[in-house]
Structure to design on (232 residues):
């Protein structure tokens, strides 16, 4: 699993650190990053017209429909690739995507949205809890009521334009982009969608970590609880 999902909660081995550092700098992951940042930029642009507050969550727009579809398309592509690497097949659906919770622990997400925290505090609203519906024991069958609202919205607007008024809204746009950002962070770690890439230099036989200055999310941030040293 260490060559598929960025492990958390323990110190990485030297080989793991090198592998994950090289992977986030690979062409494949940099293209993934570019797609994510374009989707996020589209969402941020809508704030000029529909400011993200509770009173506007049900505001609908064809632009929100496009953001939701693009975010969920990329979410699906990542899940299919991950499922193929783990199980050898990508002929799967949302139930399989959600079952990846066994490895990814979707409801334990350590990324935040400081820009919108005052309006949507994480402790008492579900905007930045995209998998709130997924309440299961990681062993039983996932049922339809566990499918996230933003994924239902994606399917509705994908198949019928008349569903835009009910589903192509700010709330589902916010939740789907956050779900995508959290998935990328869970699989690849910091330095792709959220957080700066992290690497180290040896100084007197001591490994000293620093962050690399690259383009990342303008909405979301992370704190892995690690102390980093910046070298000029």
């Amino acid at each position: 699993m260490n060559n598929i999902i960025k492990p958390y909660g323990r110190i990485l081995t030297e080989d793991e650190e090198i592998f994950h550092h090289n992977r986030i700098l690979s062409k494949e992951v940099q293209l993934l990053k570019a797609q994510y940042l374009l989707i996020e930029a589209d969402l941020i642009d809508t704030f000029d017209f529909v400011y993200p507050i509770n009173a506007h969550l049900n505001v609908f727009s064809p632009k929100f429909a496009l953001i939701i579809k693009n975010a969920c398309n990329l979410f699906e592509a990542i899940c299919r690739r991950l499922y193929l690497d783990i199980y050898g097949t990508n002929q799967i659906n949302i139930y399989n995507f959600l079952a990846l919770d066994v490895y990814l622990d979707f409801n334990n997400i350590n990324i935040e949205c400081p820009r919108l925290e005052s309006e949507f505090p994480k402790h008492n609203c579900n905007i930045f809890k995209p998998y709130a519906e997924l309440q299961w024991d990681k062993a039983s069958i996932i049922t339809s009521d566990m499918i996230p609202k933003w994924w239902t919205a994606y399917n509705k607007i994908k198949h019928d334009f008349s569903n835009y008024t009910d589903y192509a809204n700010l709330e589902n746009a916010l939740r789907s982009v956050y779900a995508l950002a959290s998935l990328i962070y869970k699989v690849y770690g910091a330095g792709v969608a959220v957080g700066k890439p992290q690497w180290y230099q040896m100084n007197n036989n001591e490994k000293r970590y620093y962050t690399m200055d690259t383009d990342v999310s303008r909405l979301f941030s992370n704190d892995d609880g690690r102390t980093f040293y910046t070298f000029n």
Observations:
- Residues 62-87 form the longest helix (26 residues).
- The mean pLDDT is 91.
- The two ends are 35 Å apart (CA to CA).
- Residues 53 and 119 are 6 Å apart (CA to CA).
